[in-house]
Amino acid sequence: MLTTHHQVLACAVATRTPVLLWGPPGIGKTATIRSLAEAMGFPLEIVIAAIHEPSDFSGLPAPQGDRVRYLPPEWAVRLAEAGHGILFLDEISTAPPAVQAALLRVVLERRVGQLALPKDVVVIAAANPPDETAGGWELGPPLANRFCHLDWPVPEVHEWNTGMTAGWVAPHRPEALDEWRSMLPAARGLIAGFLASAPHHLFNLPQDPVQRGRAWPSPRTWEMASRMLAAALALGGSEELVVTAVGSCVGMGIAYEFGALVSGDRLLDPVAVLSDPENSPLPTRPDKLIALLMATAAVASHDPDQYWTPAWTVIARVADTRRDIAAVAARPLARVYQEHLRRGKLLSMPREAVGPLRELLEAAGIL
């Protein structure tokens, strides 16, 4: 059975989210990535960032007539020719700031010089905390904000002894992760609902230089968190997995708050509510109710043919007592209505939703 940190790594690989493994030297980060590449059948390119120049990532200038081309290094060419693989950027915290700056396009835009890496190239990095590395550098905020960050633990003695005597269990990609895209609308809705209740968590650049080099919330990392959350939900969505997956992108403090909101006694499940919109129990806490309604709106926006009427039925139930909360979820659905109308498709409105939300629906041009 995969441990939580192995599951989160699998989520990052499945969603092609760049992931940075933090941990002291010698605990098996590189060995884990080697085993992962072998299990996936992916070619592995290990690039030690600290011993490379910025031009090794931005491309080597090569004049050609009145133009200059930026030639990629050989490892990038091999990945492009293979069409898939793992790019493992090792010792990234010992790379000087100029090299870190050159890595920005590699991590976010997946470009090395003028070469675009295929979408099936997974970007993984590893770093030692700067205080445990000779000549280490804090990771700059622009680069740190392009990774999800995973603290890689020192193995327990019994785990290590078992591996030594019986062989190491190679990390693998659970088949359930193939369904992560189907969970993405619900994940986006849950995150949107959380931020509707806690808007101050959308962006917060830490003042502490150390924390700036780790996970912190921004619109970019919340988008990454939505993919990681979708993968975590595909794996069953235990509270520990949800918190760790989201925390790897936006920080663990916020992730615990998020986990308490969307998990608690049971995970908020928008699809289950939409399957029985008239009778499904709804949360009484306003923040939980907003999160659930935003998740149902997101699912209905993704598949209005199936969920349009059930979503409005749920919103109408809430509007009877909390019109302000219902309006939060009604707004994105109103935009979906307008977009379909522009394409010549009319989405009908359930009659029970019209009364409590007439003013909002009229303003949106639905009535």
Automatic annotation (TrEMBL):
InterPro entries the record matches: AAA+_ATPase, ATPase_dyneun-rel_AAA, CbbQ/NirQ/NorQ/GpvN, P-loop_NTPase
Lineage: Bacteria, Pseudomonadati, Thermomicrobiota, Thermomicrobia, Thermomicrobia incertae sedis
Superkingdom, natural source: Bacteria
Domain AAA+ ATPase: 15-156
SMART domains: AAA (SM00382)
Pfam families, per database record: AAA_5
Official protein name in the record: MoxR family ATPase
Molecular function in Gene Ontology: ATP binding; ATP hydrolysis activity
